[in-house]
């Protein structure tokens, strides 16, 4: 077990974030070490090793000081006697509320029900009042996955599956490629051990064969670009992640020879103009494979990814994929939403890659500056294209039901099943009996108590119900009873 010393930790934080207030980092470290002093991780490590790991990852993402400090302290409220008030007194309101935000996200658990996965993802995003809480949560998950072997088998499976279904997908939506790849590859062996083993073996053989050819191509590319007058450019080979390779192979008859981007050559140039010029240049030297030229600059992927891709018949008579992108696009692909945060912090305006995609990030930044914004108002104002005006509530079993804002327990009951709706006698919201016209809030746990003898909705439920689904079910039930 390799432990990191506080000195090594401070040094690496300073290296990643030269302008950070190191005294504050040291204070937070002492605070966390003290609070967790009697706790150990399942691996046997002192707990504060986990805290340091999260802060370190956040500093690698170049996130702001507040996020890094909050990362260091993220388990203090949940796992120790320290109160939010004490934390706030010591480190201020911003850090304290960020930690509360991280703690809240713990409530969201994936229980292996396919049909609710998408709701769960949306809920995760909706519940995060501060996007930085999600960054902390993703890094927390990465460290937990890397020590998952120390946990009991059933827990391993649940956590790894949740990581694939929820966390990796969220990292992807936020465009943070580095975190998505890490989460998937760490969770993969726990969820699909046999497949992981096979892919790893196959991968090693293929990469061993392919890598030298890509290196040769890179050398040739370097010369040609240099001759053509390019000065500031970078070329490196990038190797595909295990999990994404496995997923891709399923779409290609499990034939690894049909995967052209197992090892790809990646060129990073100055700007968009150079990307296209570079593509033209490459095609003058090596023939492109038909149908494999992709312009993700003109048509970015849904998560904002931009690059030009082409597969060419290279110098060793091998097909090799080349990816061309500007420095900005590269930064975007690796750090996504996290990169936007970093930009704003250093005083520059957030760079919004063609409008829409990151609009909500810039809105987020604006909202956070406004003082005393209540979480409810924040969520209401947050325009993330797919959960605008939606709320997410739990069934007692932890399933997530997605409802329009303003919905009542009646809407909830009918969303589950019309029989539950029709025989609804009472509702319990967060362990308390609630009126049927209560406006539900994000994260409420709702239990419907049914009465077997009750088969008919009351007529005033029509006024209480907000969703058209509930209204039409109520009308149907009333109509059916009249016919009887
Ligand atoms: Mn943690």
Describe the structure.
With 484 residues, this protein is α+β, with helices and mostly antiparallel strands. The protein has helices spanning 6-16, 22-35, 48-60, 65-72, 76-79, 84-91, 93-105, 117-127, 131-146, 153-173, 177-191, 193-227, 242-251, 272-285, 327-345, 359-369, 375-381, 409-416, 418-422, 461-464, 468-483; strands at residues 234-239, 263-269, 294-295, 308-313, 319-326, 390-394, 400-404, 424-429, 432-434, 446-450. Strand 4 (308-313) and strand 5 (319-326) form a beta hairpin. The chain binds manganese (II) ion. Manganese (II) ion is lined by residues 50, 74-75, 140.
In short:
The protein is α+β, with helices and mostly antiparallel strands and 484 residues long.
The helix tally amounts to: 21
Please tell me what the overall shape is.
globular
User: Main β-sheet: number of strands, strand sense, barrel status?
Assistant: 5 strands, mixed
Which class do the helix and strand fractions yield? alpha+beta
Number of strands: 10
Poorly predicted regions: 343-387
What portion of the residues fall into strands of 2 or more residues? 5-15%
Distance between the termini: 73 Å
Q: How helix-rich are the residues, as a percent range?
A: 40-55%
C-alpha Rg, in Å? 26 Å
Oligomer: single chain
Strand order of the largest sheet: 1-2-5-4-3
Bound molecules: manganese (II) ion
What integer is the average pLDDT? 85
């Amino acid at each position: 077990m390799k432990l990191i010393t506080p000195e090594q930790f401070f040094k690496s934080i300073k290296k990643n974030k030269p302008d950070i207030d190191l005294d504050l980092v040291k204070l937070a470290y002492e605070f966390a070490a003290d609070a967790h002093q009697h706790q150990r991780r399942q691996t046997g490590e002192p707990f504060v090793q986990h805290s340091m790991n999260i802060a370190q990852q956040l500093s690698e993402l170049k996130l702001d000081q507040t996020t890094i400090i909050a990362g260091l302290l993220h388990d203090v409220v949940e796992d120790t006697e320290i109160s939010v008030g004490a934390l706030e007194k010591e480190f201020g309101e911003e850090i304290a509320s960020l930690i509360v935000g991280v703690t809240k996200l713990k409530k969201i658990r994936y229980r292996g029900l396919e049909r609710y996965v998408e709701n769960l993802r949306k809920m995760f995003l909706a519940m995060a009042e501060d996007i930085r809480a999600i960054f902390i949560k993703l890094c927390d998950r990465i460290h937990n996955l890397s020590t998952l072997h120390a946990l009991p088998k059933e827990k391993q499976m649940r956590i790894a599956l949740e990581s694939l279904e929820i966390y990796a997908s969220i990292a992807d939506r936020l465009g943070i490629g580095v975190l998505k790849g890490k989460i998937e590859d760490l969770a993969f062996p726990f969820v699909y051990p046999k497949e992981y083993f096979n892919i790893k073996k196959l991968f090693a053989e293929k990469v061993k064969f392919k890598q030298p050819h890509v290196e040769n191509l890179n050398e040739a590319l370097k010369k040609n670009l240099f001759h053509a007058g390019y000065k500031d450019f970078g070329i490196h080979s990038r190797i595909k992640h295990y999990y994404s390779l496995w997923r891709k192979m399923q779409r290609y008859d499990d034939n690894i020879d049909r995967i052209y981007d197992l090892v790809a050559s990646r060129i990073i140039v100055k700007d968009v103009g150079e990307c296209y010029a570079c593509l033209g240049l490459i095609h003058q030297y090596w023939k492109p494979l038909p149908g494999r030229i992709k312009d993700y600059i003109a048509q970015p992927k849904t998560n904002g990814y931009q690059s030009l891709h082409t597969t060419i018949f290279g110098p060793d008579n091998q097909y090799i994929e080349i990816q061309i992108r500007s420095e900005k696009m590269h930064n975007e692909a690796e750090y996504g939403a996290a990169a936007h945060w970093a930009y704003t912090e250093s005083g520059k305006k957030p760079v919004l890659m063609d409008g829409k995609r990151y609009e909500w990030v810039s809105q987020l930044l604006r909202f956070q500056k406004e003082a005393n914004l209540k979480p409810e108002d924040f969520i209401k104002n947050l325009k993330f294209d797919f959960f605008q005006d939606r709320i997410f509530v739990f069934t007692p079993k932890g399933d997530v039901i997605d409802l329009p804002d303003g919905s009542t327990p009646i809407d909830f009951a009918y969303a589950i099943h019309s029989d539950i709706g029709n025989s609804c006698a009472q509702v319990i919201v967060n362990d308390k009996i609630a009126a049927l016209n209560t406006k539900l809030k994000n994260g409420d746990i709702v239990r419907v108590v049914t009465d077997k003898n009750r088969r008919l909705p009351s007529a005033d439920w029509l006024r209480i119900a907000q969703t058209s689904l509930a209204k039409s079910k109520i009308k149907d039930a009333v109509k059916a009873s009249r016919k009887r």
